[in-house]
């Protein structure tokens, strides 16, 4: 940021204008944040690209059923066998359910009416009905579940679970809505503890937290406007990621700015001048970091999956809002309140900066002894961790593993599968030309596909027929997904049928295909985009190449280490197909941040001290703040592990591990060792380092930069 611009933002009068202006704008946007849930789209079918077979089939399926229909089942279980009294109770409860909301809860069918709803051993029975609240389904189902839970029961040890698609949606919606505020509170609590430890001040932590919360509210409000008025797709997962990203990244930017401001307060008697100089020096790294994250996230626009494509711009918008707040509101607050906010460790004018002889100065001196051995050894260790990647199965998470706590929909589904009951809410559905419907059904039957019941032509309209084939396995299991492929192979072989397959299992299979494609396409795009940003920032080719290499190695190590954690600690056998891509984008975009923070300071110090000495000065100056920033970001993403979702637990764990590897090992040891080993050549083809400066002797303290007052 230009020195004059920085000065105008933090002047004696302009600081008040900035404060009021930012609070008014952010407050207006923040007032809309609570409405974001109203524009979320959490149905899997909405995530698919137009080219997916399920999407094409769903368009035709509208002739026969409403897209918002959610088949729902109440599963009744008694280990000693259901009694006549149980079946009478089920009939009575069905009558009550039918009266709950006759306009939206319809077609209630009991085991008495449908004997096939009772398992052969007599232990399990199901009652089914259809739920349709239109586009408000996600919001209404949790309340409906409470009503149904209050009606359904069995005496003396019998158990009842709400299952089917309606039950799954109800559980998912309840999890997302109940953990929205909890996630924010857990995230803030973890960050506050780290800030208290880092600053050892009872006051200073309030400013970055306040600024981050303002950023979050403004981001959520702006996302609501974009989702409502544009084609931006936002779902529950997007909202959670935005929450932790804004708090984590915002606090990181605050840490970097406050650290530089504290340095400048020791060099400038006027706090306004100190902040102007701090912004002038720190803003380029902060803005470059934010740009890297935002552009890396925007690369997700190339994704086929709408949910992934929507994740990119949504989080990019949040990052842009956050960085704008952090370079305007936070500086204004700091200069308005003055030096006392650092109490009891107030940085007085003319005092020495303690980082010149701190922990990271000692680490740098240790690395400088034999830098080549250090970076080779570090790379070997990280490469060894990468081997855990082969323990990851990204073929999708079956329904019985999607949650880390017991959910009714999962328990009910398991009972139906274990007792050979058909889940009518999730059949494999085929739409085909009506004159070929019988041939399509015959082809499915002839294929004798595991887990697939005999197909039935259930309806015909406008020359199109619907063929349903119930399945006897978990709709999201590998068996069900394999069945979809077999059904498609069979029906595609029927000439002139133009058969298209959809249903919950088919949608999941298409999501797997789209995720596989996205992983192959987007990862190279993100790497290239980040490389270009680093080239522009560092004005070098070799340095960005090395940094990209270290981040890739760090990502592989984080993924490998996660593989061991998932297997031996969590006991998870599967991961979501989108997990590697999400982890990659966040770890590369966020991991490169710390290298940007370090290398921009190295470049700054190289001008006066040379690359090797400048690297040690940069490490000693930024080591503490970057470590704190890494701990903050790791803690915010680790907060995702508090949600009872396997996907968020795995994603939070991997990003937290990756960030810690980046801050503790890659940035402080690997990158510093490479800088010291390669020296001025690291800026190739730039001639930034002329080689005039001597290599510092191992064990000597790096000389602090003397910055003239402006």
TrEMBL record:
Record key words, sorted: Cell membrane, Membrane, Transmembrane, Transmembrane helix
A Pfam short name: MMPL
SSD domain sequence ranges: 204-336
Bilayer topology: Multi-pass membrane protein
Locations listed in the record: Cell membrane
Keyword Cell membrane: yes
Keyword field contains Ribonucleoprotein: no
Assigned GO CC terms: plasma membrane
Transmembrane residue ranges: 16-37, 183-199, 206-227, 239-261, 282-303, 315-337, 373-392, 521-538, 545-566, 578-596, 616-641, 647-666
Annotated segments matching region Disordered: 690-710
UniProt cross-references to PANTHER family, sorted A to Z: MEMBRANE PROTEIN MJ1562-RELATED, MEMBRANE PROTEIN YDGH-RELATED
Family statement drawn from the similarity comment of this UniProt entry: Belongs to the resistance-nodulation-cell division (RND) (TC 2.A.6) family. MmpL subfamily.
Protein name listed in UniProt: MMPL family transporter
